[in-house]
Amino acid sequence: METLAWVYFYASAFVVVVILSAAARHKVRFSGDFIGALTGYRLLPEGVLTIWWVVPTLEALAVAEILFSYGQSRWLAAALFALYGAAIATNLLRGRQHIDCGCGGEGTPISWGLVLRNAVLLLIALPLSTPDGGFTIVMGFLVVLTGALGLLAYAIVNQMFANAAR
């Protein structure tokens, strides 16, 4: 049982690190698209949009928090996923379904499915205590495999949302 706890602990940290790293990179690389998505949400005054770079900076800090704590501290990542889900839900409740989620990649309209996806990411990002037991090669292999499967599932879900919009 401690092998499963060990694998989940590190694989979930790995998945969150990869997702947030890719998100921060995409927001910086395609800042115009990101600013457009932020504008579409209509949650912030236009003047605040000039400091759009705060969001990818927070994502990078969340990655650093996880890496430097060896996966034990994930509070910033969890808070970001909660914030993203709340922003999407707010617009859906306002009846604004045809805005880009700003998730990166293909333009994807916001949906309750994205709120659910962010809730799942929030649960995955919740901080855990380091499991007992030592590292073995098998555990390392299982962490990489589980992390890769988690990222594949994330990519499939995102593609399903993008395809549903077509």
Could you name the key traits of this structure?
166 residues, mainly alpha, 0% strand
Question: Could you characterize what this model shows?
Answer:
With 166 residues, the protein is mainly α. It has one domain. Helix content is 69%, strand content 0%. The protein is built from 6 helices and no strands. It has helices at 2-29, 31-41, 54-68, 75-93, 112-125, 137-164. It is globular.
Task: Chart the SSEs and their pairings.
Blueprint: H1 2-29, H2 31-41, H3 54-68, H4 75-93, H5 112-125, H6 137-164
Helix pairs in contact: 1-2, 1-3, 1-6, 3-4, 4-5
Radius of gyration: 17 Å
Overall pLDDT: 90
Q: Determine the N-to-C terminus distance.
A: 44 Å
Mind summarizing the main beta sheet? none
N-to-C SSE string, H for helix and E for strand: HHHHHH
Note the overall shape.
globular
- Helix percent reads 55-70%
Name the beta content range: under 5%
Number of domains: 1
State the total count of DSSP E strands.
0
Structural class: mainly alpha
Uncertain segments? none
Given the structure, what is the number of helices?
A: 6
Nutshell version of this structure?
The protein has one domain (2-164). It is 69% helix and 0% strand.
